[in-house]
Design a protein that fits this description.
Blueprint (H helix, E strand, L loop, with lengths): L6 H9 L5 E3 L2 E3 L6 E6 L4 E7 L3 H14 L5 H4 L2 H17 L1 H12 L3 H22 L18 E9 L2 E5 L5 H15 L2 E5 L6 H13 L6 E3 L4 H9 L5 E5 L2 H11 L5 E5 L5 E4 L5 H13 L11 E5 H17 L18 H16 L3 E4 L13 E4 L6 H4 L6 E7 L6 H4 L4 E2 L1 E5 L3 H10 L4 E4 L14 E2 L2 E2 L12 E9 L2
Parallel strand pairs: 6-7, 6-9, 7-8, 9-10, 11-12, 11-17, 12-15, 14-15, 17-18
Antiparallel strand pairs: 1-2, 3-4, 5-21, 10-20, 13-14, 16-19
Helix pairs in contact: 2-9, 4-6, 4-8, 5-6, 6-7, 9-10, 11-12
């Protein structure tokens, strides 16, 4: 195997991280002194030792964030344009450290270094650049009043930061998810405590270091690494005004319960079981490539993965064989190998989860193309296609979060959309057809927060992203994200 970077460079980048908690602008040990190991899923070897934060550390971080949000604090007094410049500088610094971030994402998550370098890291920088412009564009309204003596009153609204935010992110896109959470918080003028996933804490540590270099005042961004106990403490903390979570629907429901203590505001970006509808009149080359990308990108560890593939029966065999051929062409391996196009699953737990769903599908009568374990070290599973599926199968109904797609045909004279919508999830969906009228009609009827037409996995910082049904509350990105982090205050003044 040829490495994309030299081993000495790997040691240098990983060794430069403190492995500590960022609280009030300082890198500190956890209160307990405990640490945990971050593993490389391609080799199962230890990458780094990281501080194991818990409730006491969360409390310290929240108190620092509250102090930084005080009326007389630097952050609250800072001109909005200066706040935006700090954010833009942080975006620049991310690009300056492109290779380091890509390396950390590959080592910690398993994804190919080349993919992280051209996708994850630039998109994270772009999010900070885009959101930095919003710092000066958060506006209220002057509203005409309908009272008979309307000239005697002036009514207007102010948009004000919600306060201290607790933010909990997953392991599938560690840096990008941190950017999705942190950037709008900063633009809105809030302060935050970020809890990265315990499987992938390393890129958040580098991001915290660069945020301080960019000029972010102490306490505005705090980072507490650790296990679920830290996330639970953050969601339940009485001095947190808002919690934002990205992860599984099951944990999202627990976040809602934890937030009830002080009725803190909650936004959730949760699981998915996204339907992908391929009509016979589609450009089949594009549909096959797009359908493969929909499920196999990022090892299938995407909440919006196109994991239910519905194909019009006249082209079903052709599309399934085409996707299977795409799967067979994927090169599994260590993410640092330039030839690798799919890395390992993130952890032993995730490997067992995906393997369990494959076994369940087989036991329920599905035929499985692929899905074998690859190698005897690392968490590698070959991409898989399930055919002969039924809607009541566990592997068809539940989110697998791996490179596994369930395929089924539908007849030309049937309405596939009730079946496509028959899911508790509603995060993403897709349609492939050359008929633009059919495409728009289908997109309108699909119950999902994002619908792709003749493509998949296209994102932009300006486009809102979020789910219907049990896929979550609220939206990430775009100007819609500020509904998560701003309060609206109405002011009425007597002018007489």
């Amino acid at each position: 195997m040829t490495l994309a970077v030299e081993e000495s460079r790997i040691a240098e980048v990983v060794g430069s991280l403190s492995g500590k908690l960022l609280i009030n602008g300082e890198w500190v040990d956890s209160a307990s002194g405990q640490t945990f190991e971050s593993l490389n899923p391609a080799t199962e070897e230890v990458l780094a030792s990281v501080a194991r934060g818990a409730a006491e550390d969360v409390d310290r971080a929240v108190r620092a964030a509250r102090a930084a949000f005080a009326d007389d604090a630097v952050w609250r007094r800072m001109p909005h344009g200066q706040r935006g410049r700090i954010m833009h500088t942080l975006g620049d610094l991310i690009l300056d450290h492109l290779e380091e971030f890509a390396l950390l994402e590959s080592l910690d998550n398993g994804k190919p270094f080349t993919v992280a370098k051209i996708a994850d890291v630039p998109l994270a920088a772009d999010l900070f650049h885009y959101m930095s412009g919003w710092a000066t564009k958060i506006e209220g309204n002057t509203i005409p009043m309908s009272a008979s003596d309307q000239d005697a009153y002036l009514g207007f609204t102010l948009r004000e930061p919600v306060g201290v935010c607790g933010q909990i992110i997953p392991w599938n896109f560690p840096l990008l998810m941190a950017a999705w959470k942190i950037a709008p918080v900063l633009a809105a003028g809030c302060t935050t405590v970020l809890k990265p996933a315990e499987q992938t804490p390393l890129s958040a540590l580098l991001l915290g270091e660069l945020a301080m270099q960019a000029g972010l005042p102490p306490g505005v961004l705090n980072i507490v690494t650790g296990y679920g106990e830290a996330g639970a403490a953050l969601a339940a903390h009485p001095d947190v005004d808002k919690v934002a979570f990205t992860g599984s629907t099951e944990v999202g429901k627990e976040i809602v319960k934890a937030a009830a203590g002080n009725l803190k505001k909650v936004t959730l970006e949760l699981g998915g079981k996204s339907p992908n509808v391929v009509y016979a009149d589609a450009d089949l080359d594009k549909a096959i490539a797009g359908s493969a990308n929909a499920i196999f990108f990022n090892q299938g560890e995407c909440c919006v993965a196109g994991s239910r593939l519905y194909v019009e029966e006249s082209v079903y065999d052709q599309v399934v064989e085409g996707v299977a051929e795409q799967a067979r062409s994927i090169k599994l391996g260590n993410g640092l190998d330039p030839a690798t196009t799919m890395g390992p699953l993130v952890s032993a737990e995730q490997f067992e989860r995906v393997s369990g769903y494959l076994s369940s599908g087989k036991d329920d009568g599905a035929h499985i193309i692929g899905g074998d374990r690859v190698g005897d070290r690392g968490y590698f599973i070959a991409p898989a296609i399930l055919t002969g599926t039924r809607e009541d199968m566990k592997a068809v109904r539940e989110e697998i979060f791996g490179p596994v797609v369930a395929a089924a045909p539908f007849s030309a004279d049937s309405d596939i959309l009730p079946t496509a919508n028959n899911s508790p999830y509603g995060l993403g969906a897709g349609v492939f057809t050359r008929d633009i009228s059919k495409a728009i009609r289908t997109a309108k009827r699909l119950r999902a927060g994002t619908v792709w037409v003749n493509t998949w996995n296209v994102f932009d910082a300006a486009l809102p992203f979020g789910g219907y049904k049990e896929s979550g509350w609220g939206r990430e990105m775009g100007h819609a994200v500020f509904n998560n982090y701003l309060e609206t205050k109405t002011v009425i003044t007597d002018l007489s």
